Amino acid sequence: MAGNDSSDRKSKACTIILPVFNEAEVVEKTVRTISGVFAAAGVKPEILLVDDGSRDGTWDRVCGLHESEAKVKGVRFSRNFGKESAIAAGLENAGGDCVIIMDSDLQHPPETALEMFMLWRDGGYDIIEGVKISRQRESMALKICAGLFYQFLRSLAAIDLRNASDFKLLDRAVVDIIRQMPERQTFFRAMTGWTGMKTSTVFFEVQLRAGGVTKWSPLALFKLAIDSISAYSSIPLHLVTFAGFGFFLFAVILAIQTLYMKISGMAVEGFTTVILLLLVIGAILMISLGIIGIYIAKIYNEVKFRPRYIVAETFTETETETETETETETDAGADG
Question: What confidence tens digit (pLDDT) does each residue in 106-125 have?
């Protein structure tokens, strides 16, 4: 199913999804900056803030924004479920004909988001990817790790995400496709490319954070890498099989050599070779079991079919309008 033609998009609405987690310091500035940039171009987007279990008063700021900004909607999780779940909740609750996902700390420039919207409206694209010009504000260690991860993912799953980000625009048709995907554990950055819909790119320079600190730790990034690779490739499981065959061939060669040395009377007494073999084989077995365990854990989490997130509180423009209409009808009935 393709998106609407560009000629049908002139008056279409846009929803901007902002996952927030302990962003009380910047959330108001972010919303007003985005609203100002779009308003200057005559566009009034719906802004959907998904609070991923914040503990610093972020939700109070979101509620205040909802009271002052007619187009602000909010969803609050019962606890922290992670950014992937926050994006999923945003897609479930977005009402626009296109959806823009961006960070809540203004590292993704609002001007680029507006450029995405204009390109979607006039160009007829279904997906518009935000691509980083460089990773210059990241540490050298993080750059190296990111480069290795993307190279590994491209080799195993044929998905090229170099300099990619969660900053992107999706047409309603793409949103509906992603919402139909049943998996509980998602990797949004790769899901959109998997759809194969008509795609364009815009380039942006990552900005400095408007405030606060990053919520990503090295451990969290490592877990994201493991989850994304196991979600889109089964090749690591096959590598276990190849390693088994390799060691079998090595064992056959070593057995032949050992028998030859024994028969010829040149066998050397000692346990060094045996100990080394046991250590190497034991390490390979443990790593192999670990890889298998990752996939079994994935299956286990999927078959439980628990919800991706639990919503503790929500408010939407649609609900407010519905309540107002109901009250008006009730008053009219009472007057009659």
Answer: 889 999 999 999 999 988 89
